């Protein structure tokens, strides 16, 4: 029996937390072992204190204490010490970006392992460190044996043209079984209750939540905002100032069961992001898994590409509260169209956007990356 492929994942937050990149990493760690290929996975991430957790027979989550945070980027000396040892036995290092400290470790500590870089987003929060950060990314992309993006549109967005021979498109995927509502959840919505429009995501600057709240008075439904983040106090104050407390509900702490229940209760899903930091939108896949139509914005990223190519919903201009409200209201007024779009989305998800499909494509990329290692990389330790 062949020796297992030893893979180190370098992520930012724990994949057990709900969020875009974290959800993708978590789905990979769950789905890769299901492909019945000999692989062991060690996932390193930043945390308040160091600890190890066994997530499965071949999967270990290794949290490492954050030493400092510089321009929103964590730095961990504990991770440095762990990576220095672990890289010697690794066959492949899979780094999830943005993650500057992980990039520094890969470049500063040579490894015989193949390197795969998944570019999930282009952060715009590094301020005066933007130029050195971009230089760091260019060096990492030159070192990488393979680069993964979630949609073809994102390859240009992330300025990967110089490395196009290394770039592979691996669409995100989720496990629909993760989002089954509880057995005792009502199967139908009471006729006396107004419809609900659901948003899921971190409360951060690029999610377009100000636009959604500006549209809220004209939307013929309740709004449920499921997620937490630094903008919560300001958004809460805005809801109060606009007199929308009976119309807008915040759910700041939710597990998969809670998410599944709110998806089941919603008439449709909205993700009104306003910048290209929204490169895909895993929450859109979760809505598709629940058979819900989606409304997203035209950003020229994997987000609107997903909705256009699957036909799972509608695309509106970013930052346009009137267009957002009108599109949502049109769908609220047409139950048959909502059902049609929801069914199309679920069919597309089952065909192309499951975590098993993502995992198999990722394993194929691992094999490709390991095959193109240069001799000097293979010899270094």
Detailed description of the structure:
The protein has about 375 residues and is an alpha/beta fold. The protein has 2 domains: about 5-175 and about 355-380, Rossmann fold; about 175-350, Glycogen Phosphorylase B (Rossmann fold), CATH 3.40.50.2000. About 40% of the residues lie in helices and about 20% in strands. It contains 14 helices and 16 strands. The protein has helices at about 20-30, 75-85, 100-110, 130-145, 150-155, 210-215, 230-240, 255-265, 280-290, 300-310, 320-330, 335-350, 355-370, 375-380; strands at about 5-10, 40-45, 50-55, 60-65, 70, 75, 90-95, 115-120, 145-150, 165-170, 195-200, 220-225, 250, 270, 295, 315. The strands form 3 sheets. It has an 8-stranded mixed β-sheet with strand order 3-4-2-1-7-8-9-10, sandwiched between helices. It has a 6-stranded parallel β-sheet with strand order 13-12-11-14-15-16, sandwiched between helices. α6 (about 210-215) crosses α11 (about 320-330) and α9 crosses α12. It is globular and about 60 Å long. It starts with a strand and ends with a helix.
What keywords describe this structure?
single chain, 381 residues, alpha/beta, Rossmann fold, eight-stranded mixed sheet, six-stranded parallel sheet, 39% helix, globular
Mean pLDDT: 91
Shape, please?
globular
Query: How many DSSP H or I helices?
Result: 14
Strand order of the largest sheet: 3-4-2-1-7-8-9-10
Instruction: Please identify which CATH superfamily of the largest domain we are dealing with.
Output: Glycogen Phosphorylase B
Task: Tell me the β content.
Answer: 15-25%
How do the SSEs run, as a string of H and E? EHEEEEEHEHEHEHEEHEHEHEHEHEHHHH
Task: Report the major sheet.
Answer: 8 strands, mixed
What's the total number of strands? 16
């Amino acid at each position: 029996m062949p020796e297992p492929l030893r893979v180190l994942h370098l992520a930012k937050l724990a994949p057990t937390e709900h969020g875009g990149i974290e959800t993708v990493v978590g789905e990979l760690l769950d789905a890769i072992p299901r492909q019945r290929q000999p692989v062991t996975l060690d996932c390193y991430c930043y945390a308040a204190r160091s600890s190890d957790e066994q997530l499965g027979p071949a999967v270990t989550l290794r949290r490492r204490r954050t030493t400092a945070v510089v321009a929103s980027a964590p730095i961990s000396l504990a991770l440095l010490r762990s990576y220095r040892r672990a890289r010697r036995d690794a066959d492949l290092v899979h780094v999830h970006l943005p993650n500057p400290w992980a990039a520094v470790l890969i470049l500063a500590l040579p490894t015989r392992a193949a390197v795969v870089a998944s570019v999930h987003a282009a952060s715009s929060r590094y301020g005066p460190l933007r130029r050195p950060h971009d230089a760091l990314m260019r060096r990492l992309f030159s070192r990488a044996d393979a680069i993964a993006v979630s949609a073809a549109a994102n390859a240009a967005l992330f300025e990967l043209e110089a490395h196009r021979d290394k770039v592979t498109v691996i669409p995100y995927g989720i496990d629909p079984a993760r989002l089954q509502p509880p057995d005792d959840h009502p199967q139908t919505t009471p006729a006396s209750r107004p419809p609900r429009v659901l948003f899921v995501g971190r409360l951060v600057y690029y999610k377009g939540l100000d636009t959604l709240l500006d549209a809220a008075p004209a939307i013929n439904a309740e709004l449920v905002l499921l997620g937490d983040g630094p903008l919560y106090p300001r958004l809460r104050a805005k809801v109060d100032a606009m007199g929308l407390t009976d119309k807008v509900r915040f759910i700041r702490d939710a597990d998969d069961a809670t998410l599944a229940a709110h998806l089941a209760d919603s008439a449709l899903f909205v993700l009104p992001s306003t910048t290209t930091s929204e490169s895909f939108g895993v929450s859109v896949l979760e809505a598709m898994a629940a058979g819900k139509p989606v409304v997203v914005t035209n950003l020229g990223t994997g987000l609107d590409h997903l909705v256009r190519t699957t036909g799972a919903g509608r695309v509106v201009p970013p930052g346009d509260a009137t267009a957002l409200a009108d599109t949502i209201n049109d769908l609220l007024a047409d139950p048959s169209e909502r059902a049609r779009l929801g069914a199309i989305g679920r069919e597309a998800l089952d065909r192309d956007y499951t975590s098993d499909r993502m995992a198999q494509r990722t394993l194929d990329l691992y094999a490709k990356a390991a095959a193109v290692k240069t001799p000097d990389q293979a010899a270094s330790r």
